[in-house]
User: Fold this.
Amino acid sequence: MGFAGPRRRRGDDSYWFPGRSFCLESTVGRFRRIVQKAKAAVRPVRSDAKFVMYYELLEAFKEPGCPVCARLEQGSLRAMDDLLYEQVTDPATRARLLASRGFCNRHAWMLPRIRNSRLGTAVIYHHLLTSALERVTAEGTRLRPRSWWQRLSARIAPRAEPLALVDWWNARTQCSLCVRNRQSEWDHLAAMLGFVQEKEFLEGLRASAGLCLPHLCHAMTIGRDHPNLPVLLSVQADRWSSLVGELAEFIRKNDYRFAAEPMGREGDSWQRVLDAVSGRNGAIGPDVPHGRLPGISAGSRPANR
Assistant:
């Protein structure tokens, strides 16, 4: 697929050519990159004993809802942004996306949330829809309604009829972002169990909403014998106990006898309980199985990311 000329690169004043491995940077674009590198050079270096995930979770504790859900959503958006920015025309990436038929429903609908995602989305899905169209066209000229005798024979001796489009769709591989999220989920839960005894981390967790039910179940499964699991469960029980009390108060104030009482923090408890029981909207999908990953022990930690 060709383009008439260079395109403005996302986020700066440079230009890139789809399908080529170089870009023409303006003076402003180069200056911005120099400034970014300078800032990174003077930024304080954190202790090697605490990898970056520790600090990412501390930040996630400040957000509403499950911190692991928040990190998975942020990671998916960043991965998709990187793909659209750098890898859309990469042959290996295109082949992988074709094999998975693009992204799963959950991740496909994250695309509109990414700034300047329109061109990359169009390039990816133009390729996919063209492949699907070829099969639809072929099936349209081949398939005809079966006679009653053919339908009866199919009932008596069922056999799979080759349907090119259906077979192509069913042969898809798993969504690449779901695969990434599965490992990322394990890493973050392992970090939760590994650091929950540390004062700063424990205080942050206690001030947060805690884990959602699906991620708590996953943490219990992979960390069944971890010595810090009781601490995590204790904090989680406190967080849910508070939420249960707020829900009870919300229900009470919706009774006509107490309707005049103003709503406090319990006013949005009915929304927060959805996050607590089901996880953040779009963060957990059917392509992310739970409880099928190897367990972790007290000494094991995920690789630094």
Notes: Residues 118-142 form the longest helix (25 residues). Residues 177 and 203 are 31 Å apart (CA to CA). Residues 1-40 form one domain. Residues 1-26, 39-49, 287-295, 301-305 have pLDDT under 50 and may be disordered.
